[in-house]
Amino acid sequence: MWNIVKKWIEVRIGLDELVKTQLTEYLVPRNINLFYTLGFVALGGFVVQIITGFFLLTYYVPHTDHAFKSVQDIMVNVPYGWLFRLMHVVGSNLIVASVGAHMLSVFFMNSYKKPRELTWLVGASMLLITLTFCLSGYLLPWSQLSYWATTIVTNIPSAIPSVGDFAVQMSRGGQNVSGATLGRFFALHVGILPALLAGLLGTHLFLVRRIGISAPPFGPSKKEKNPWTAFRHEHHPDGHPFFPHFVLKEAAMVMAFFAVVFFVITFAPALFSPEDASLPADPFRTPAHIKPEWYFLAAYQMLKIVPNKFAGISLQIIIVTLFLFWPFLDTAKEDNILKRRVLLGLFLAACLGWIVLTIWGKYS
Amino acid sequence: MTNRREFLQKVLAILGLTTLASFVYPLTKYFSPPAEESAAKLLVLSRKDIAVGDAQEVVFNNTPCVVINRPDKGFVALSRVCTHLGCLVEYQKDKKRLLCPCHAGTYDLAGSVTSGPPPKPLLQFPLKVEGDSIIIG
Amino acid sequence: MRYLLSCFFILACATIGAAAQSTEPVCIQCHDTDMMKAGLRKVPAEWRKSWHYQNGVACNDCHGGDPIDAAMAMSPQRGFAGKPSYEGVPEFCGKCHIGILKNYRESGHGKALKASGSGPNCVTCHGSHAIQKANIDIINEERCTQCHSYDRAEIMKQALFATEKNIRDIDNSLKRLSSQGMYTEEEGKELFRIEAEFRTLFHTADVSLVKQKTDGFQQKLDTLNKKIDVLFTELHTRRNFSGFLLLLFGGMSIVLFLLAKDFFKRGEEK
């Protein structure tokens, strides 16, 4: 039966050739390691976010009078609503972790170098979009935490001279966070950002496939690469089949990702929901301690320690710009980071700095 | 070698199908319309029991409520649970208001907050007057 | 443009304060400095330790005056009432705590104050600015023996004790449920209602009334306890279900890793 179906499709789109070139005879580097699966893990995570997001969309009401209650209804009254909501909340935090890990491993293996600069640029933009997803999603439950964290964040651009206040009002849809803010954040979260992400993701995957997977630069030194003056796809004739070998590894990691999601849901379901998240938004009462989510703590702390607000924001903009355009700054030929002490030192210092700032931000 | 592979593939199939089923069931329940509330319980009172300007305390849907016979706007059924912290409000006939004894939140006879800490108006229940009966719910 | 916008959003962090801090009333600006006599200067610090502070009740909510405009902060036109007299304290606090004022006025304590001008007022037991959440230990030997022997107060405390413990236990259960992500707003309100009614009993200083009402309270608390048990059961069911899913995904992960290893090894051997 299955063969009949396969033959039917084969005659129409040449399925066999596709399977051969894209799956079974598509070879990945022999020394490929587990870190290469992280991109796919992030993709798997996003798919789950979209699916659980659709489910939540069935019951969520994006109006200030109903938002909080609708989320509460999902958690209490809708059968298994708690499951999908918690998957969405926990999943969103874990996606940031996997996207971050993916980025760190790409950086560590210098895979952003020529000819992959564009892939890095698109990927870095996706990281920013992911964080914007998190930010916009945060407001939707319209809890105390949502309201006040958004107030603080949308206030940041005010430090920029002349256009600052305009930017603040644009992001809020008015002077203060209100129903207008909820409206535009909802549109962002559910419509605009997914479309942007889909476009970027498609480009990212196309670039990876078109240029070819980079081999890890470690191990015995390879022969000197020919200077890159014309396009060529990077083949790995001595590599492993993408399917089923590498796909199995990717699938295993995706399952591990979900195992972690359900571990958190089972043993620490309120891990990402502090007390203020269970109180409806009250524009007249600021809670005593509002902190951003863990992935923003480092930036939060950095802004706190720079005494001048404008300098603080400028510093962050500069860092983000450097981050986005890094492949155009680091054009050295050597792609083994272990042989580049300065870069390795910088990398480790940045990681350590981020960790320190995050912990400091949590306890300050 | 192949036996091992086949065994693993079989185990994977079982786990996979179980996982799928474990999501299909919740999904079905998630999207199913809620069971029709069995003839939503109604509370019936007699009109004669509440004179104009007076009120009667009742319990509807496990919530303490008050049914007020307002001189100008007729009958209304309001929840007595103050929206501040949950104390029960009291009807004050002379002051034509509802007062919460815990922190002096006051509501008018439509349930709107007139002063004090309550953040939202009192919950109102659907009320119909049919002949001599007042039907709540 | 998209990048710039993303940058703005990504600089997502709390700036120091301007938006974050709750604005304190303008009264504090003078009362926190050494322009004030020592007695007045310590008031803001005491207030910040109080339950009132944590619930957004500030100077003007009790004393009147304008909390924003310094020039009108102590103006009678804005309802500034200053410091109440000793006998005026119950009415002062009773502006908000109406139910308690009523019970107090009808009690031995309230009558004593009205008749002779001496007797405990609210401040005697609760303090004036560092007010804490009410609890049974406000009734203690040191405090009550200021005017009379402790035995009456002790009997009262004993009568209140069991119900108080029950209330505390339920409060802890609700906190546990809430920390596990369950919604406890309705039950919390019900507990507060019962607790508030119970607290007003304290102020009647009438032991026989307390004993009479205790059963009623016990019943209400039992009903509440049943609801809480239902919530705990629901919590456990949820935990079991997600634990089951955890095992499934963990299992699949392991099996897939083993399968991958198998394929890779065969690849090596070729």
Protein architecture, described:
The complex is a heterotrimer of chains A (364), B (137) and C (270). Chain A has 364 residues and is mainly α. Chain A is built from 14 helices and two strands; from the N terminus they run ααβαααααααβααααα. Chain A has a domain at 34-216 and 236-296: Cytochrome Bc1 Complex, Chain C. Chain A has a two-stranded antiparallel ribbon with strand order 1-2. Chain A is globular. Chain B has two domains: 1-32; 43-136, 3-layer Sandwich (Rieske Iron-sulfur Protein). In chain B, the strands form three sheets. In chain B, strands 2-3-4-9 form a four-stranded antiparallel β-sheet, with no helix packed on it. In chain B, strands 5-6-7-8 form a four-stranded antiparallel β-sheet, with no helix packed on it. The longest helix of chain B has 30 residues, at 2-31. In chain C, helix 8 packs parallel to helix 13, helix 12 packs parallel to helix 14 and helix 13 runs antiparallel to helix 14. Residues 4-22 of chain C have low confidence and may be disordered. Classes of the chains: A mainly alpha (364), B alpha+beta (137), C mainly alpha (270). Chains in contact: A-B, A-C, B-C. Chains A and C meet through helix 4, helix 5, helix 6, helix 7 and strand 2 of A and helix 1 and helix 14 of C.
Secondary structure: elements and pairs:
The complex is a heterotrimer of chains A (364), B (137) and C (270).
Chain A: H1 2-13, H2 15-24, E1 27-28, H3 38-59, H4 67-76, H5 81-108, H6 117-139, H7 144-155, H8 164-172, H9 179-211, E2 240-241, H10 242-267, H11 294-305, H12 309-324, H13 326-329, H14 341-363
Antiparallel strand pairs in A: 1-2
Helix pairs in contact in A: 3-5, 3-10, 4-5, 5-6, 5-10, 6-7, 6-9, 11-12, 11-14
Chain B: H1 2-31, E1 43-46, E2 55-60, E3 63-70, E4 74-79, E5 90-92, E6 97-99, E7 106-107, E8 113-115, E9 124-125, E10 127-130, E11 133-136
Chain C: H1 2-10, H2 27-31, H3 38-41, H4 43-48, H5 51-54, H6 59-63, H7 89-93, H8 98-105, H9 108-116, H10 122-126, H11 141-144, H12 151-179, H13 185-204, H14 207-269
Helix pairs in contact in C: 8-13, 12-13, 12-14, 13-14
